[in-house]
Protein 1
Amino acid sequence: MSQIQDSLKPIVALCKRRGFVYPGSEIYGGFANTYSFGPYGVELKRNIKDLWWKMFVHERRDMVGLDGPILLHPKAWKASGHVDGFSDALIDCKACKSRFRCDHLIEETLHQNADDLTLVQMTDLVHQNKVKCPKCGASDFTEARHFNLMFQTHMSKTGADGDVAYLRPETAQAIFLDYKNIVDTVRVKLPFGVAQIGKAFRNEITPGNFVFRVIEFEQMEIEYFTREAAWEKTFDSWLQEMHRWCKRIGLKSARVHEKEHPKEQLSHYSKRTVDLVYDFPFGTSELYGLAYRTDFDLSRHAECSGQTIDYTDPETREKFIPHVIEPTFGVERTLLALLCDAYEEEKLENGEMRTVLHFAPCIAPVKVAVFPLMKKEPLAEKAQAVFATLQALWHCEYDESGAIGKRYRRQDELGTPFCITIDFDTLENDTVTLRDRDSMKQERVAIRDLVSHLAPKLH
Ligand code: ATP
């Protein structure tokens, strides 16, 4: 594990140093696998979510949005199969009490895929091969057992203690529960999709790799409803859309790959799943997923709620339950992939090193930073006027303290595409120095041309 974390260390350090991501509850010694997104992390996340909404809801005519509750009726989780089936196999080291996901332990120590093994088969493999605990080295494991990943809480609405409610482990189910409301209240016609962004919670057995696997995270999910006969075509077109998204946020295409799930490893609801995996520094791992959920969820909710959840064809009046293609995107994994993709320790011609995040402008937390060469007037007043103009259009930052070189370096580490310096020439001819983050080239641009000059580069 520490080796895995080592490959991420420079990025984790930058995230802390520059206010992207802090460990959760740090002043109390930390609270494992929780994180706060600092002033730049929150901007990055907002840019990801806003762009996703724009691309998948506003730029299409076949999509609508939803913001459903985190707490759904407990019967919904029974119907969806999560109460009985949303679990991982867990195994404990009796010597040091460390807990592991049994399939991961087998994969890491015996280099064998354990996805379709039963609990008994996994236990036998671990015991017979005398697998050593990666933490303490002892070969003394318990039996493998199921561990449900849903967090439970209790409601006392009826006055009776012990009414269990679950924090949602995926946002999808809220969409299925409101499918009927959407069909009845807004003019949607098959094929159409519903998008939702929101928190999901999973009591992961072995979280880790920074924000890659956390217990509280955000999902951006689409449930796309279509006719059964069209599922393959729809699946392929969403796969292309997911690649288009990766390009749009600036991920290097060579680092994004498709991974088809073998039939025997599919989730209980899926007939086909393809993951988009990304080459993270700690290995190639799932970034997003695309699943053909058939009519499983809507049929189960119809059955368990006793409600009719049919779609009526407007022309033929035929009634049926639509099938579903689900593209799902994790916000934190997107953020981590963007950071890994953008991060560079660059050796400059003069031998110095600079750390830079090469974010695509649409994703960058700050678009433009404005500096007066010195704090004193009339430079500061001029710089503030430039800042006010640009701030109305983009998220900008004003920085007047320290040497100009240091201010550039700080913005490089934040991934700010452009810096503007107001200097003594500005007072003479109303031009500023515009510095490009990636090439570090500087050019003089007239203040009156700044907006038209920057706009095409930032959009
Ligand atoms: P994994 O196999 O890595 O556990 P999964 O297949 O269970 O992931 P899904 O159920 O498909 O994941 O969840 C949809 C998306 O939500 C994932 O593609 C990922 O981006 C994100 N995600 C899932 N679990 C976590 C987690 N624990 N922390 C952060 N993001 C997550």
Note: The chain has a mean pLDDT of 93.
Protein 2
Amino acid sequence: MSECLFCRIARKEIPSAVVYEDDELLAFKDIGPQAPVHVLIIPKAHCEGLNDLTPEVEQAAARIPAVAAKLAQEFGIATSGYRLIANTGADAGQTVFHLHFHLLGGKAMGGKLCQ
Ligand code: 5GP
Ligand code: ZN
């Protein structure tokens, strides 16, 4: 069994505030929210990040934008706007090495993605 943090969250060994789940994907609230809406969307199968996609994870992750759009509707940010971001590697500040997409919204985030 993987000791990876997000694998453990996917297996429900570590509690999280789940907002969406299907056979392949899980979405849960970020523990340190950087916006009023801050959700992490992950494939349940382990993969370190975008550089390490397997065919299985690629197929599952292809549905993440649609899940993000559905969650944006549910959280009332579809019209006001949101970001969907996958930090990859050191320069991007990736800290958890299980592929995840941040869904961020609920406030004006400005134009700067690189600071
Ligand atoms: P990264 O920096 O790798 O792009 O994003 C990792 C994210 O995971 C961070 O925003 C961090 O707050 C979140 N995070 C880290 N540990 C936990 C945890 O145990 N539970 C939840 N829900 N989020 C976590
Ligand atoms: Zn993992």
Note: The longest strand covers residues 37-43.
Protein 3
Amino acid sequence: MGIAFDKISQTWSLHTADTSYQMQIGPLGYLLHLYYGRRLDESTEYLHLPRDCGFSPNPYELQDEREWSLDTMPQEYSGSNCGDYRLSSIRIETADGISGADLRVKSWEIRRGKYELEGLPSAYAREDDAETLSVILQDEAAALEVELLYGVFYKQNVITRAVRITNRGSAPLYLDKAASGCLDLPFGEWDLLHFHGRYAVERQAERLPVGNSVLSIGSKRGASSHQHNPFLILCEPSATEDSGECYGAMLAYSGSFRMDVEKDQGGSVRLVAGIHDEGFRWKLEPGAQFSCPELILSYTHRGLTALSHDLHRFIREHICRGIYASRPRPVLLNTWEAAYFDFDGEKILRIAKDAKDLGVELLVMDDGWFGHRDDDRTSLGDWTEDSRKLPGGLESLVEKLHMMGLKAGIWLEPEMVSEDSDLYRKHPDWALIMPGRKPQIGRSQLALDLSRPEVVDYLSEMLSALLQRSGVDYIKWDMNRNLTDLYSSELPPDRQGEIAHRYILGVYTLLDRLTREFPRVLFEGCAGGGGRFDAGMLAYCPQIWCSDNTDPIARLNIQYGTSFGYPPATIGAHISASPNHQTGRTTPLETRFCVATAGAFGYELDPGKLSTEEQETIRKQIRDYHSWQPLLDKGDYWRLTDDRGSFVAWQNLASDRSECLVSLVMREAEANPRPLHLRLKGLDPEAVYVLEEQRFPSGTDIKAMKKRCFTGAALMYAGITLPAMRGDYPCAILYLKIQDEK
Ligand code: GLA
């Protein structure tokens, strides 16, 4: 049993294989957090000693018990305006203007299986794979009911959390903040590891000590954003890849979010995560309910790599849906960097033929095939093919690609509209614009008001018809600006604070309908590269274009940061031309291959511009990729270095430890180089591994690599020393396989 309730101490224990999470019904029915950490089979209600620390108020009923305060006791879901001055989880205002939430346990229930969230993506499980605890809290005076939901995934060491808020009164009330979860870590010192960035430089890892302040990451952009990712790790300052306590917290949400970490006066650290509260105000009519997005929590005492492995498996098996969640993804070639807007059907077919000849399986026609879109200023919203470019229509192109033995994909940006489009001319009020003001434009485009059901219905019918008639096998679902001018003509003044969240609910409704109706179509998420790379989108799109930056050396840090939370199979990674279009850097084709194999693999170049030798190399790359694909998709990803040294290395290890691919890329050319030494990880120490393949740049002195067989122990404890590699950005790839017993 994953969930147990102890009647005597009034505590719940939520157990996974290696972790326990405990909470207790405390004095006056307050729900106190007790413990989250290594697996424990006894209750920890003895841990938190009430203390009078002055200027921390006491509940009225406790009168002179000055040592008991909500301001000092660990809380499961902090209220507001009720004595806890730390980060609040919820803020409301009643019709009478009373704000505050004083929450106490009303009832609870344990259920088999995993709860679902209406209209929101959330983890799924078979009935036997998860259990749900529902604890209902209430603020009687405000007629407010808050249901805390816990999904316990025993084998995965994951506990999901979500919250449903209901107005049980007879007058409306307003939600001004509604977090998905609150986690108090009452003892110890913690570092915050988070992933920040900008366009083309997403998810850079930054590790900061949690001092006596509030650290806040988030996005107010209407998308989870390039700038911050809705995922963070709290770890011991001494935690490394291989040891130490680590908590991972990831929102399955793609809109504006906020994750705050506060160390309070007593040294206790609190994390509160959920929808961003700035500009948020949700009106709850009597009887109405609001669901907060899911928060995915994981804990390990075995370091950052173990945390990543638990999260990777969880995302692969309980977030990603559809046939491609478990099926190998086709090797694709995307035309964006091959042609930008400069193409027609003939050119696409020429690229497709060349691509097919190399072994590519899916041809994706990127932006520019619809309306009269010769640049990025026009036609979004008019999703019919440009007859100048595709005189035979989309169907005919798709049919020709299919006849070549290729799958066919197209680029779409359904959430947006260009001023120069028939859609905008017909429905100017469908764009997010504030009355009496000129809107902000982003990439010369406006965002559609997806908070309006009629806009969502229009898009889903139009897209369904497009997918139906064209027969495409793949959609790249892009989103190339952030939201501004949040105003919807359909909502009354006191509901305007709902638009950003309703927009994302509209995106989810659309994706939900389309992915259900077209289960064989592979959807790849994108927002100017990785501007919406989150577990919410992954519930519909099992892969997401990680960054518009395809420079393999820049990608090292982007993919390094992304790998902490997200598995390689979800990270779109393509080989592009050299010199690179974003940085101008020249890199070897082998290095571009090496870096792209750490993700959902593909190409982003014109195969017609390759030399015969490069074409031959790419044929071999695709064959190699296929032979390693099960290992890359389903094995575990191990970071072997950090992102700061002269080289970056990682390995993919099969979960039965039978095969291992080691990749290393040099970031700096060094004179008189130091030994290039690596210790592999996670192997079977007793087993003998055969070095079946080793790839170094030509001219490398590989005498040192003569030895072909190593015990797992030798590879892990002594490690291996690779020969020095010269030149710009060389890489090494080693493939090791466990020796056959016979
Ligand atoms: C975004 C995407 C690119 C490409 C362009 C097309 O920037 O991230 O990959 O599809 O749009 O306009």
Note: The chain is about 20% helix and 30% strand.
Protein 4
Amino acid sequence: MTAAITHLIAGQWVSGNGETVVSRNPARPDIVVAEGGGALVADVDAAVTAANEAATAWAATPMHQRGAVLLAAAEIVDGHAAAWGRELAAEEGKTKAEGIGEVRRAAQILRYYSNEGDRQAGDIYASPRAGEQILVTRKPLGVVAVITPFNFPIAIPAWKIAPALVFGNTVVWKPASTVPLLALRLAEALTTAGLPAGVLNLLVGDAEVGDALVRHSGIDAITFTGSTAVGRRIAAAAAARGIPAQAEMGGKNAAVVLDDADVDLALEQVLLGAFRSTGQKCTATSRLIVTAGIADRFVDAVCERAAALRVGDPTDDATEMGPVISSTAQQNISAGIATASDQGATVLTGGAPYSDARADGYFVAPTVLELGGGDADVWTEELFGPVVAVKRAADADEAFALANDSEFGLSAAVFTQDLTRALQAVETIDVGVLHVNSESAGADPHVPFGGAKKSGLGPKEQGAAARDFFTHTTTVYLRGGRPVA
Ligand code: UN1
């Protein structure tokens, strides 16, 4: 059944008068998951106005009370994990098990931030002057524009919206227009949980709506996850207006497998990192670096397992990898593979389109490419699909140097049983998230998430780092009067 796309403005669910937005099942594009009129630029104004009107009362609501709304929403989200996880798989294309896992993860994130009232709210410093203390208090920024990508349709929105709200901000949210259904589910959960009107506004629309939102003078901060090109434009627009922006962007994440690795573990984790979510994670493993002693054995095994992955309809229980999000994505990834071949890469497995029933969906086969010494775009540019580029290294030092051979620095994985090498990786690999003996993707809500180098702009996300972005500080020089004699 096709769901109707509506928008949430000032506590009202309204239909849109913009161009029709159609969300299709990427495994079976003839199936329309959700459809409805998109938002118009005029709706952006209404939503930002509503968020501004709601801001003062929400900021004045005790943090514990704001957290209680998030906790109630977490219960609703958890209670719908099976149903919404299936919808997520049908709308986005990751497997049902991953979809259910993601919905549960969104609930976990909401629950984590629901407890923010129980955590430290600021700092206190000694004063050089008698009778004085110096406090650093935290205040909300105001209205936050939240712009989220397709690949985690409920978890990434939760990890931006939950901290924005608990720290007392109001929100205007524009999700990727390819995943409106899951956006509606999260917004419904929050309103049913008791969020006051105007505190969260949801607009489903195209890039023009996103542009109008980031340029609106009523917005006080922008948080974005998505492509590097768009992230930089958003950060530039924010800088021009003098408002803070947080942009979480691309990755070209390496898995480094050293000769002494636990091979079975490394194999399992590299496969998960590369092909879960069809490789559509900014933290996915898209480069594999293997040292000479095990390279032949390991690369063969990766290819064998990749070729054996069951690729199909993500709502089928047996499926291990679903399609990519859209026909455009499918074409870009296929073009990337073709360019790699032209530049001298050898396709070890995958690479070719499906000619069976899957030809109707946006499927890309799990693909492993081996690179020689020359330059190859597939080594440097994010393809955002199930494609891994392999390079061999003579030894661990060269392997770590290759891991750093990227403009990006989001995440990396290192597989070794040698503590000294693991510590060397911690010291030398320049990334925001490093996994030792686990896949390059994955993030817990209570610790910072974000990239080094060109992967991110602005403060990191999650955990205590989220507070740095979603609040500003007031330093209070607190002195009493003269004691009454
Ligand atoms: C994860 O690795 O589980 O867009 C989360 C992304 C990241 C989130 C990754 N911002 O893929």
Note: The pocket of 2-aminohexanedioic acid is lined by residues 149, 151-152, 156, 225, 248, 281-283, 441-443 (CB under 6 Å).
